Amino acid sequence: MAHKTWEVTKTEYCDHVGHEIDIEAEVVYPAEHLPDQPPRIQAHRCSNALECNLIDKSACIYCGTNPNHNPM
Ligand code: SF4
Question: pTM score > 0.90 for this model?
């Protein structure tokens, strides 16, 4: 059975919040009987996305409120 997990891909300073955040990727690893398939990345998210969504302004693609802004 395939296995999904969130992994930190990089740590960066974000100007919007004024501190470092982690960018995470949802990685899908293939089932054991398909060992030749590479892992796939399905989505990205920011470790600070919940806090950014509480602010009453659109932020960026990593919290889903502004698809036109990528701060990284
Ligand atoms: S969600 Fe976007 S704006 Fe908010 S801290 Fe993360 S990268 Fe910065």
Answer: no
